[in-house]
């Protein structure tokens, strides 16, 4: 019994370490593609990011990484009262997400104003409500969020770094998903859209708060280094 318990702990530690390593590699890949290479966001980029993220990390349902990594899911999924995009509609929804993202960038460029926190929160929210993969959707959406912030705000935000912060993020994401269903069901004209908070509004605020915390931590670290 003791050996089985120790074996379970060892496996959990190995899995946790693998997740951390692959998360770092996936972020490096995505930031290199979007920021260093200045490539536009694409479906292939998202699929490759997920493939790197899940390498040698089997899903929570027992699927091997070969079976689900970098591949859109083929089964329906939901969380609580929220039902995510039907599997047959996932590829089309993901194509639409990429098109909408690049159109938003084009509009912002022509207007001469871009809010990176709003943009990152919007597409993190949209991605997680499509839930395109069998596992790793939350981690992938936060990678996309941080790649957007790295490119357009020059900062990385650690959402859910600590347990209480993770709980807060999950609560915000859950409320956003519930709001999305109400938002989708409303028949709104342009005036309504302008005054009704979008479902990703709270996530935008959380992202901005996280950015302020990250900047403060960097400032404090720099002060400490200069004081030595």
Automatic annotation (TrEMBL):
<feature type="active site">
    <location>
        <position position="131"/>
    </location>
</feature>
<dbReference type="InterPro" id="IPR036597">
    <property type="entry name" value="Fido-like_dom_sf"/>
</dbReference>
<dbReference type="InterPro" id="IPR040198">
    <property type="entry name" value="Fido_containing"/>
</dbReference>
<dbReference type="Pfam" id="PF02661">
    <property type="entry name" value="Fic"/>
</dbReference>
<feature type="binding site">
    <location>
        <begin position="135"/>
        <end position="142"/>
    </location>
    <ligand>
        <name>ATP</name>
    </ligand>
</feature>
<keyword id="KW-0067">ATP-binding</keyword>
<dbReference type="InterPro" id="IPR003812">
    <property type="entry name" value="Fido"/>
</dbReference>
<protein>
    <submittedName>
        <fullName>Fic-domain-containing protein</fullName>
    </submittedName>
</protein>
<feature type="domain" description="Fido">
    <location>
        <begin position="41"/>
        <end position="191"/>
    </location>
</feature>
<dbReference type="GO" id="GO:0005524">
    <property type="term" value="F:ATP binding"/>
</dbReference>
<keyword id="KW-0547">Nucleotide-binding</keyword>
């Amino acid at each position: 019994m003791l050996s089985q318990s120790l074996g379970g702990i060892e496996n959990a530690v190995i899995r946790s370490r693998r997740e951390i390593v692959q998360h770092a590699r996936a972020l490096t890949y995505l930031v290199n593609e979007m920021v260093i290479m200045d490539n536009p966001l694409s479906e292939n980029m998202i699929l490759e990011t997920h493939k790197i993220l899940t390498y040698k990390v089997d899903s929570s349902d027992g699927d091997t990484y070969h079976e689900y990594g970098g591949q859109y899911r083929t089964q329906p999924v939901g969380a609580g009262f929220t039902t995510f995009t039907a599997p047959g509609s996932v590829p089309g929804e993901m194509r639409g997400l990429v098109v909408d993202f690049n159109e938003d960038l084009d509009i912002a460029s022509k207007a001469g104003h871009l809010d990176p926190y709003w943009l990152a929160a919007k597409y993190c929210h949209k991605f997680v409500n499509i839930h395109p993969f069998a596992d790793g959707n939350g981690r992938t959406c936060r990678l996309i969020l941080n790649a957007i912030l790295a490119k357009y705000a020059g900062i990385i935000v650690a959402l859910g770094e600590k347990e209480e912060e993770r709980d807060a993020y999950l609560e915000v994401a859950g409320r956003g998903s519930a709001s999305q269903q109400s938002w989708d069901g409303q028949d709104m004209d342009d005036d309504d859209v302008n005054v009704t908070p979008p479902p990703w509004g709270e996530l935008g605020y959380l992202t901005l708060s996280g950015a302020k915390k990250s900047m403060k931590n960097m400032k404090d670290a720099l002060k400490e280094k200069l004081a030595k």
